[in-house]
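Subject: design request, 344 residues
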């Protein structure tokens, strides 16, 4: 695994105070693969099955993954020293990354149409509203956050630290309320170009929490808070699924803006800052995280085709390990090719 990852050539974080972001991205991508490997169990098994409850628990323990990526981006891109940075220079530096996003969205659309899983019309609709494939929403969210980053930098440089924290809290609360309305009162969901808006709060929170002095919150409190949030998320899924008779309402507690997930993500973010882990493997995983994120559904689909959908938590965990290793090898091949390296 390590040898497969050594070939990744993205620059590591050079600021020693931000080395922890490498471990954050590495652990987040591991959690993403684990989360997506256990998803099928939630929808295919009866809710009375032990493996279903186990899948709920494992899934609940990984829901912080995608929001953590966004918080890390906020910690890196909304630093106070960047408050006066020019918009043009920022967009110029991000153009290649956004181009790679467009490449992968187009690639998935072409494969889905050619394989007969989607018609051209449905594929186009998925491209427009961000629902083409289950993990591609993240590319839309990050692109939107890139678009508003110069504005957010300007705001941060123009207001006091307490005001910035208040704006961050307001953005998070709006997202939480919106998620409740979306799930329980059938409010229309907005996707595509504005899919990023609820994530602005997470993005800003990354800059706020990264500014806290280490030791402000003890590791014991953070670990206890994370355990409580994971438990609340899992219990919420089980109770609401039983109460409403279907998984739709129970999955609210797995949403990125349910209070347990929001607070749990904050706890993970701070824990990783406090622990400040660093190793060659974590650094390599961090640099490979985008390629693994984009490619990991491919081996998951192939494994399901070859062996059938996992029917137990053990099978799902084996799928997760296998998919992660296969994706790392696929990513290595991409990075070894000068053309594909540009989009990975």
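Subject: RE: design request

Done. Sequence follows.
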């Amino acid at each position: 695994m390590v040898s497969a990852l050594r070939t990744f050539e993205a620059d590591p974080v050079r600021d020693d105070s931000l080395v922890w972001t490498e471990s954050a991205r590495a652990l987040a991508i591991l959690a993403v693969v684990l989360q997506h490997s256990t998803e099928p169990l939630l929808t295919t098994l009866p809710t009375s099955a032990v493996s279903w409850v186990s899948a709920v628990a494992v899934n609940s323990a990984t829901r912080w993954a995608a929001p953590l990526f966004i918080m890390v981006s906020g910690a890196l891109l909304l630093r106070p020293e960047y408050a006066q940075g020019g918009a043009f220079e920022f967009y110029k530096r991000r153009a290649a990354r956004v181009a790679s996003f467009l490449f992968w969205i187009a690639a998935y659309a072409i494969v889905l149409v050619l394989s007969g899983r989607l018609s051209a019309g449905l594929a186009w609709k998925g491209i427009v509203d961000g629902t083409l494939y289950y993990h591609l929403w993240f590319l839309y969210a990050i692109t939107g956050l890139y678009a508003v980053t110069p504005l957010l930098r300007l705001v941060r440089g123009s207001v006091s630290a307490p005001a910035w924290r208040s704006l961050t809290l307001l953005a998070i609360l709006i997202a939480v309320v919106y998620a409740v309305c979306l799930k329980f009162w059938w409010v229309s969901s907005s996707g595509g170009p504005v899919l990023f808006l609820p994530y602005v709060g997470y993005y800003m929170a990354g800059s706020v929490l990264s500014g806290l002095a280490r030791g402000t919150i003890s590791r014991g409190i953070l670990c206890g808070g994370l355990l409580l949030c994971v438990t609340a998320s899992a219990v919420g899924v089980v109770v609401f699924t039983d109460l409403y008779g279907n998984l739709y309402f129970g999955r609210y507690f797995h949403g990125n803006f349910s209070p347990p997930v929001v607070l749990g993500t904050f706890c993970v973010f701070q824990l990783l800052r406090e622990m400040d882990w660093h190793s060659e493997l974590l650094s390599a995983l961090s640099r490979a995280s985008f390629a693994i994120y984009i490619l990991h559904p491919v081996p998951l689909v192939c494994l399901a085709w070859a062996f059938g959908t996992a029917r137990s938590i053990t099978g799902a965990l084996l799928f997760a390990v296998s998919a992660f290793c296969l994706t790392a090898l696929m990513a290595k091949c991409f990075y070894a090719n000068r053309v594909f390296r540009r989009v990975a």
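The chain is about 70% helix and 0% strand.
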